[in-house]
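ok so for the tutorial part 2 we go from a plain amino acid sequence to predicted C-alpha cells. step 1 is just haveing the sequence, like this:
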Amino acid sequence: MARCSKYFPAADAADAEGLVGVGGSLSPEWLLDAYRHGIFPWPCDDFEPVLWWSPDPRAVIEFEHFYISRRMQRTLRSGKFTCTRDRAFREVITNCGSAPSRRGGTWLTPEMIAAYCRMHELGWAHSVETWRDGCLVGGTYGLAIGGLFAAESMFSLVSDASKAALTHLVSHLRTQGYMLLDIQQLTPHTASLGATEIPRREYLRRVRAAVDLPVRFNPALAT
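step 2 — the prediction. this is what the C-alpha cells look like for a chain of 223 residues:
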C-alpha cells in the first residue's frame, strides 16, 4: 500500500479511471504533497473543482531506453536548435496550454498556469526551451522533487523542436542523477521515443525512493 499523504488518500485507492480526489487547492503545499505521493492535478473540460489523478498503469521514460532516430541525431548535431533551461518558463507553459492540438484550444487553466509559475519561482518547476534563430520554437516543463522529474507537457512550433527539448531534458536528468522521469500517460509520440508503462504499485515504490534523494535540477546556460 502507498503511504498516505497530508491532503489525499493513498494513490492506490484511486478509482478505475485513476481519480484520487476532487477539490482542494493548487497551492505549493498541495502540489508538493500530491507529486510526492504519485498524484497530479488534471483538468476535465469545464469541471471547476481540481481533479487529482494517479492512473494505473503509469507512463515513464527509462533513461536507458530513450530512443532518438538517426535523422533526429543529425538534426541535433547540425546546430539547427539551441536548448536552454529555465530561460522562459512562463512562455513554455503558456505555449503548452495553447498548442493547436489541445482539446478546446487549451487544457491548462489560468489558475494552473499561475500555480506552476509560482512553483517555478520557488525552485520546484523547471523548463527546457528550444530556440531557432533566437525565437522560442519548442519546450517542455515539469516539477523536480528530489530524484523525481514529473514532466507535464511539451510543445513544438516547428518540426522536431519538442524532441530536441525532451532529448536535452533526458540528458540533463541523467547527468544530475535523477532516478525517475514520469510522463503520466503514454501517447504514440512518447512511445516512439521509448516511453513505457509500469504498474502504479511499482511507480509509487519508485517515487518513494526518488523524492528523498539529494538531487538538484541546477539550471544552466545554453549547451
